[in-house]
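Sequence only, no structure available. Ideas?
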Amino acid sequence: MSEKRVLRNFIDGTYSDPADGRYTDVVDPSTGEVFASAPLSCPEDVDRAMRAASKAFEQWRAAEPKQRQLAMLKFADAIEARAEELVDAECQNTGKPRRLTLDEEMPPSVDHFRFFAGASRLLEGKSAGEYMAGHTSYVRREPIGVCAQVTPWNYPLMMAVWKIAPALAAGNTVVLKPSDTTPLSTLLLAEIAAEHFPAGVFNVLCGDRDTGRALVAHPTPQLVSITGSVRAGREVAITAAADLKRVHLELGGKAPVVVFDDADIAAAAEAIAVGGYFNAGQDCTAATRVLAGPGLHDELVAALAEQARNTRTGPPSDPDVLYGPLNNANQLARVRGFVERIPDHASLETGGAQVGDRGYFYSPTVVSGLKQDDELIQDEVFGPVITVQRFSDEAEAVTWANGVEYGLAASVWTKDHSRAMRMTAALDFGCVWVNTHIPFISEMPHGGFKHSGYGKDLSMYGLEDYTRIKHVMHNIG
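Reply:
I predicted one. Tokens follow.
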């Protein structure tokens, strides 16, 4: 085994050690072995990062939009040029298949930065006008200030991009805490950013939940953004409320995939398998909750089971696998527990077992015969487990699809245009796909309803979330 790496925080344009010298182990989930130690940042580290971000904000907010755009475009080019290096870090952190990560995650990450680089010059407000006699009014759209951001372990690099790109484009500065299990690629991203942005514009603090709590509670940030669990989102909202900070929450999901009898079964099954098993199902929008029409239910279950049996999981170096391991031992135990508790009225069609004796790999799994109130239907599993329910008609499909606490994403599969229009209106989710599942584009917003949180990532809506509105009135009389 190679010598363990010692990671450091990235504050004010340079690497630095944690103030109290505490570290935590970082584990490669494909082997279960420790490969690095990362700082457990304390309040003193948080305070130092906030001071750096506050100082940098005065310079960065004053930059002309074209200057911010140019810096972001150069940063995007640098990410693209160093994609192999970033993917190496991402795969060691997560165990993801290397080829898929390079092909599927790096191009959109670069594109998101390029989109927001251009968007930085297109912020809109109401036109100036005389809405009162003798007075001219107009609207200024301004950056908020320092933003505290917390990213998850399922897409550490891409979620960092989703958060920092709109924040920086709007003229804010950032202190970001990656998950304690996946800090590597985010630190490298900050190192690359330091070549293109003023020191202190983008700072990365490693740490655990206590570090995150200190970040949220610090008086400096004017906005707190987190992608994580509902529990974490609630904690952030409660803590931020004490200081009346803005909060931007992208939380869990339980995406329904509603497949009607007229759908193309083969196409649906293939897309559901990819959308359900990609990244080991560790995706808030994963296609893991299938609602099947009565006429095709049995055939769809058989097709999904066949897709599962033909889907492979394995280490990053294997070019033929669709997904890698679950992120950590606790997540493996959680997924295994859900499957072990399958009720008697349900059937395990295939899968349901750990794969290999190293790392946290779990087999592609299909479960049928579940009822609406079963925990596998109501709770987010965050693993490669696809469930199938048989609905009787369109009304029941809508009721069951909406009958969970989440509201992030959904999809509808049908050849009936009128039905598709009815369903997209009736489904209570922030994103609804028709005859596809899981594509994202920079120009369109992503964000949920209900317990999936509020605020938007991507698109101009995401950029506006990182701005504040000021009314200015001149007496011209």
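DSSP finds 16 helices and 25 strands in the chain.
Hope that gets you unstuck.
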